[in-house]
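Ticket #4471: structure output looks truncated?

Reporter: J.K.
Steps to reproduce: submitted the chain below (1204 residues) through the standard prediction queue, then opened the result file.
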Amino acid sequence: MRLLEMLKSPVFERHVLWETYRKARDLLNSEASISSASERTTLKTIAMWLGRLTLARDKPVKMRELSIKDLLIQGFDNKRLIVAIPFVCNLLVACKDSVVFHPPNPWMVAILALLVEFYHFAELRLNLKFEIEVLFSKLDVVIDSIEPSNLLRSHVPPPPPQPELPNRLDLELQRVTSEIVNGTQRSEPPVNDAFARIQAFQTEQAAQAAQESFLRRVDELISQLPKYLSFSPEYPIFTAPTLQRIVHHSIDRAIREIINPVVERSVTIAGISSRDLVQKDFGMEGEQARMRHAAHLMVQNLAGNLALVTCKEPLRTSMISNIRNMLAQNGFTEESMPDAMIAGCVNENLDVACSVIKKAAMEKAAKDIDVNLAPQYAARRAHRDSRSQQPFFDAASFGVTISQSALLDPLRLRTGGLSAAQLRVYEDFGEPARIIPSVNGEYTYQEHVPAEIKHGPSPLYLEAEPESSPQPMPSQTSLDRFNELVSEVEKFLAQASVSSLSALSSENDIRPIIHAVVLVANRSTNREGTTLLISQKVVQLLYKSTSPLGREVYVFLLQQLCNLSRKVDKEVKSWLIYADDSRKYNVPVTVALIQTGFITTMDLDTQLSHVILRSFAPEMLNFVADLIRECSLSEQACVPRNGFSSCLAALLNAHDIGHSTQAVDILLDDLRGPRSRDMSAVSSDGMDLKPSIDVKLQERLAHYFLEWVRVYSTTKNPEIAFVPYITYLQKEGILSGEDVSSAFYRTAINCAVDLDANQLDSNAQYFGTDSLAKLIILIVKNYGDKSGTASIPQTVYYYNKIITIMSYALVQRQLDDSFSQRPWSRFFTSMLSELSTIEHSLQDTYFGCLRGFANVLGITQPTYAPRFAFGWLSVVSHRFLMPKLLLAPHEEGWPDFHRCLMWLLRFLSPFLKGEMTSSSRSMFRGALRILLVLMHDFPEFLVEYYHTLSTAIPPHCVQLRNIVLAAFPQNQGPLPDCYKRVEDLIPVMQRFPKVRSDYTDALATGNVKDAIQQYVRTGTPAIQAIVGELKNRIAVKSMSQDGTTVVTWNHTLLHATVFYLGTTAVSKSAAGTGRAEFDFKSPEVAILTALAFAFDAEGQYYLLSAIADQLRYPSAHTLFFISLMLFIFSTASRTEITNSIPERISRVLLERVIVKRPHPWGLIVTFIELLDNDTYGFWSQPFVRAEDEIYLIFVKAHENFVGA
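Returned output as attached by the reporter:
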């Protein structure tokens, strides 16, 4: 440790810590550690060393590297506590030297509580109990003073491993191969020992049930044959019903004769190949769904095609023989039914018969592959449930050692799973050709696969489809047929007397016509192109429709057409959401699209807000205001108000700058004032209930809630009392009506807050708010249980409605000077705690409610409720909100937490620009700690959202900005040495980072992006025109009331311009040369350099700060902006025109390196390169030598990084 302190090398320390974690993992998972005392002693030493590196120096043990509680639980499950407990205890001993990590630190207390639970309830050996006692003694903590946790007792251990059985597919392969070679079929069960062991573990009932299920499916498929048999007019004799029945029975018998051996062989061979390939290819893929989907695609394609190849000729022979025999039995002679006629009939229907066998083989193959990949599925579920931060690796997938380095890059497996190109190989299996009958007996193909033989064919499709198999039709014929059907639709709509599809009777239904339109599009020879043309015409009809039934019909038809093609679906939805077309400003049509779920509110809200901010066009403002009123305030409201949060923010912006319209003003007044439905019970001062709600009803509602508070406070298990209580409320009609239920929740939150308002003692029991949180979650839990999965959206919507009511109540109450935020904080944190109780039992409902909770925080954000600022900050950073959102699968919770963080930074921004008070300084410290936690535990979040976060942080808040920019992805390992020359670091700066930002929207205003792209491509217009336009849009000049010129800086546009030009230039370089490089002759560099010279001193500072914001961890972007900063410095130093750009570059870099750590890697590289590389002549610059104090500052900064 003294050596580390003497070296003072952060890079070396990171490498040491990295190796310590790696060694600890190896020893913890080593079998030798169980049996060898010396190995366990080494592990204890490693634990003490890790504790001194981290906890003793007030540095956390990162959860991504070592989750201590998970380590103890897994040690209990795997009987490795003899390793886990001594390791944890010796690690925590270092806390005695820590200022941070000792009780009442929540992280420390949680681990100690778990150890106490192990001590009392895990039946530990005496030596393990002694380890825990020694730890508590060294920490000077009494064991009895820590309440045991409930993690171990509520933990459900994983099922014990099942005996490993020989795989049925492996055993069957040998038998099938032998049969194929010898031309025999199995006549009796195999008697080898391996198969006997399998039979010992399988019951006869299960095998019989599986066979019966397969036979029933075969019967179902064969029963549908008559609908698809076709008889050519060349043989008119087969039009007789008797002969058609003979053909059907002959095909039936032929299929049954060969389907079992063909399906069994095809499924076995395809299953073995698919299982081995999928298991190998997906060895590092942790997503069970992706693996299962790929396995199904491959095995079904292989089994289906193998069955076709195997069955075609035997089936043809058997069909001819059966037809001839049955015709002879019915008195037909060879003269009346020649062989050519029979062969022609068989060839015409051979494909249909083959499709039955193919379908059966595909379905059986999918079931069998799931059985044989079950252990692999289970391994991935266990990895997901463990919430391990380590990449998934299936050791069983690599039975044969494969040299990955010997494989070509497209074939090489990567950590994290298959790449898009590799996964495409499996997706290609999912695009099989559809087999349709042809007169010559050969297979013809069609792109779409609406299975000919399927479970219970829809009568609506059968009405529109002829009995003979449909033939493709030319595109123009399809369009003509569509026009005829549309005429029927319009005629029907003109005569209809109902207003919705659900009100139509079965005799007067338009759905058969709709399905006929879909069938016409599907049968076109150019299916995708025809479907797109038909969809465009349907969209035109939709926007011309004036009746509710017409809009519903056309939206339904549009949905059915989009289901035929992903490309069509994407094109149609892109036009509906993103196209700049005034025809879209149709409120009833947009509401219909939202109600059916055809377009998402989130995407529409984001796009409409951008359109508003672009021009503040009155027709656009009126459209959005009317849309929000119809969707959120009308009787048929289908979207909660926070669903249009971006649009409401844009409308408020329009109102504030004087671009509002009458419709917008009325909407905002309704949302704020007593006309608002959710706030209809609150008067304008926010304190008294309106007289429109009966006072007696208010008293009754308060009485009902206080009764629940009494039950909650006097009952050990309130869930038992919940059922009779909620039954009583329903009987009284409290929860049945929209108005009454809303009034109940408003009354309940007000009563709960009033009850707890005087609880100033930190140990007080908040029965009011806690009981209300419990009641809401119990309602949600039982609401979801009634209808199962299908009710999840309704359950989440109901919860969002409740929490929205509570949030608006808070906003109103905080207007009063006597407002106390403590009970409100308690309510929201209790809500999160209660919500966590359904995390595992109702996962989808839980996460939907959690995301809704995060979005509703926008209502109570400090900008709107400043008196609740500290409470809001504690809720946002709560352990049941922030980590749950950030650890959600597929990063689905990241956008929600990003919005919360942006709300916090935007609130702080005005305070950070001026003199901070004690309150604003406390909020700043809270934000700083949140960012530090994100940098240590969730650095990828900061890495991907850095652009929007750094834009929201004021330029002079260097430390906040450095924390955001210093984050780097965990999978990149320790950062490379930053003391090397830039040219030596180019090889490690080739990776392109992922950035989540809509920065291009800022450039879309006034066609700035188009002008830049035109200049980059053609060199026109002149660079002076481009730079002048950018300068005028970034530095907006206006006249103040006293006649002076005021400059307002558009930082969003400035950051977007810098980032767009830089990323475009480096991407173009990588595409041209195969590697990221800096080309100082590129037009993008010319624009940025010209901007630097065009701005005044303030503008130069902002521009250079925006460039410095891109100096992050090693990446292609960092390489470009390091080179750009040095290039501008060099260019400005050599120019004959006197300028201060080198001085301002030095100032920007110096401001960021003299503050406390962390410092971004790219920033340090740039600073060291500028000071140490004599090419730039830094120490000879006039500003460096102008003042001794300035010179000494640079010297000291240089010594801090590179030494004297």
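Triage note (M.O.): checked the attachment and the full token line is present. The longest strand covers residues 1035-1039.
Status: closed, working as intended.
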